[in-house]
Amino acid sequence: MERKLATLERGTVCSAWNYSAQRLASASINGYLSIFDSPDPASSSSFSPSSSFQVHNGSVVKVVWVPPEYGDAVACLLDDGTLSLWEEVAEDGKSLQWKLCTKFQNKSARVLDVQFGGSSTCLKLVAAYSDGYVKVFELQNPLELNTWQLQAEFQNVIDSISKFAKVSCVSASISWIPQRGESQQLSFVLGFNSDIPELNSSKVWEFDQLHQRWLSVAELALPENSGDPVYAVAWAPNICRPYETISIAIEKGIAIWHVGLHPDVDGHLSVKKIALLPGHQGEVWQMEWDMSGMTLASTGGDGLVKLWQSNLNGVWHEQAILEPTS
Q: How far apart are CA 91 and CA 322, in angstroms?
């Protein structure tokens, strides 16, 4: 039996789900951010908006929840390329209200994508910019979401000496390694859709604790398509597998990669492309893995949501297609 979970206002362009708090954040082309609270499980009612407020005069491009251990907060990526962070707090005995914590501004480049990562004791934010640069910010005080400090800045190239001054990036996609424990390495995968082939191919970046720097430890692209634009990336949760699984969406389709867990003498991880899925008609917009890392959901310009799975023989196939209702 189908049940309507929530009704989003006309003009909604993006949304994000908070798994821990069972809350939904949605944003619209008129710059409004709406927060929906989960109904009582015993009731048959749908999600209801607890807050709706304007965060921008233009459109909101993307919303991302801050990890729940750091409070109820969302980052809003705006159509002018700026990034703002909003937090739900109670001040002076008043009821909970959303307030602006901080803004990340860059006069020379626009923010194209943003993701939070790290651990329960160390929160980091990685942002990809239209000039091909990546900035990693670190939260200095876990109790104050306005205490961010720039930790690193680099371009998405394997050779750290290479720098590209004139770069035009249309989009970027970032995915952090899903957290498993405090001992795991801080890593994320990043790809660009730009006019510089060297920036485009998806690369895995890992934080070197000894030298306090970020290193490119793997490139997820075959030589014949290493410069192809990347539309979306997604790092799968790993439940006791001897390798990591990462999906990369390019023009040719959705590539599934296995990445080794142990680096070689040069510090690089082994990579192997195990499947190339046909993807969608048009660009792939977004990909998400389920909690087990066994099922991949993708959506794209054809307006469809597709579910992909691997059978017992390791062969990937299209499991289901979800079409929008009229």
A: 44
Burial environment of residue 199 by CB neighbours within 10 A (0 to 12, 13 to 18, 19 or more): buried
- In one-letter notation, the amino acid at residue 67 is P
Query: What does the DSSP 8-state code read for residue 197?
Result: H
In the chain, DSSP finds a helix count (H) and a strand count (E) of 1, 24
**C-alpha distances out from residue 200 to 52, 161, 191, 281, 293, Å:** 37, 17, 5, 21, 25
Q: For the whole model, what pTM was predicted?
A: 0.92
Quick one: pLDDT at residue 2? 58
Give the range with max mean pLDDT: 78-82, 120-124, 210-214. Answer: 78-82
Q: How many CA atoms lie within 13 A of 133 on its CB side?
A: 15
| Dist CA 91 CA 31 (whole Å) | 24
Which of 198, 277, 263 has the alpha carbon at shortest distance from 232? 277
∠ Cα 291 292 298 (to 5°): 65
Q: Kindly report, residue by residue over 145-203, the tens digit of the pLDDT.
A: 999 999 999 999 987 666 788 899 999 999 999 987 666 789 999 999 999 999 999 99
CA dihedral 70, 74, 78, 82 (to 10 degrees): -20
Beta bridge mates, 234? 247
Residues with Cβ within 8 Å of 146's Cβ and at least 6 positions away in sequence, in order, are 85, 101, 102
CB 294 within 8 A of CB 309: yes
Backbone dihedral region for residue 211 (phi beyond 0: left; psi -120 to 50: alpha; all else: beta): alpha
